[in-house]
Design a protein that fits this description.
- The protein is an alpha/beta fold.
- It has two domains: about 140 residues, 3-Layer(aba) Sandwich (Rossmann fold); about 120 residues, 3-Layer(aba) Sandwich (Rossmann fold), CATH 3.40.50.620.
- It contains twelve helices and ten strands.
- The protein has a ten-stranded mixed β-sheet, with helices on both faces.
- Helix 12 links the parallel strand 9 and strand 10.
- About 40% of the residues are buried.
Length: about 270
């Protein structure tokens, strides 16, 4: 899959600038179109607290100021990246009752920010795992304050051999195939089935001209998320690729269960698919 159509989901004033600038760099590199949507059209609290008309007007004015600021930041970043003619900011009234995952299905992938102190109501609209689950599109989560001149020079792929991990790796293949790039496959634990010769994940990547190494780390008391983060820091990885949440009726998938923690605490972008 070539990268030609990127959607930025506004993630609040704290996490938005980093995601916009990073997305603009990716779009410029791939000669892609860049679209930004501000989906936080109304507040959850407005619907449940029965606010007065005066307070609603004040909240509306404050929201309009936030939207204008987000649009200006996006347009500036797009112009600086040479994307003025290939960029568009979608206002909340343009999408109406359409939810963000519905819109995201018409793009290659979604870029959004993540900030641990982001207000629950503001972030609720653009929760990365929700977008990935409901849209069928991968999501790139950019940490607050993140900036780099090199786009994912080293990618760390969290691999447990399950469906969501396979989907994430395949969705990220265009990124992994770029040269020069170092790719490390990380597995946590030891309970992995032995694959027939020529049918393992390293061979699959090799046939895509991706030279990767496979690192197996033991589980730690801090959990799998901690192992992923520690390995990313140790190897100086600039991108983490992993599967998103996988819910069953009674339990949560092993790797899926750590996705939220990794995206919440990661210092580098996280590319996730469901």
């Amino acid at each position: 899959m070539s990268i030609k159509n990127i959607l930025i989901a506004h993630s609040g004033s704290a996490g938005f600038p980093s995601s916009v600038k990073h997305a603009a760099k990716i779009a410029a590199k791939h000669d892609a179109w860049l679209t930004c949507v501000y989906g936080n059209a109304s507040s959850y609290f407005e619907h449940v607290l029965g606010l007065t008309e005066d307070l609603l007007d004040k909240l509306g004015s404050a929201r309009n100021e936030k939207i204008a600021a987000a649009r200006d930041l996006f347009q500036q970043a797009a112009a600086e990246a040479g994307l003025a003619e290939r960029s568009r900011f979608i206002m909340p009234n343009e999408i109406g009752k359409m939810n963000l995952p519905e819109l995201a299905r018409n793009f290659d992938f979604v870029v959004t920010g993540y900030h641990s102190n982001l207000p629950t109501d503001e972030f609720r609209v653009v929760s990365p795992d929700t977008i990935s689950l409901q849209s069928g599109r991968p999501v790139l989560v950019v940490p607050n304050g993140y900036s780099t001149d090199q786009l994912a020079s080293h990618a760390l792929v969290a691999w447990d051999g399950k469906r969501s991990a396979a989907r994430a790796l395949n969705d990220a293949m265009t990124i992994l195939e770029e040269k020069p790039r170092r790719v490390t496959i990380l597995s946590v634990g030891s309970s992995f089935p032995k694959m027939p010769e020529g049918a393992d994940i390293l061979t699959h990547l090799k046939r895509h001209n991706v030279d990767a190494e496979h690192v197996i780390r033991p589980k730690s008391k801090g959990g799998i998320a901690e192992v992923i983060q520690e390995t990313a820091r140790e190897l100086d990885a600039k991108l983490i690729v992993m599967g998103a949440y996988e819910h069953s009726k009674f339990s949560q998938d092993l790797f899926g269960g750590v996705t939220h923690e990794v995206t919440r605490t990661s210092k580098v972008p996280v590319f996730m698919s469901h």
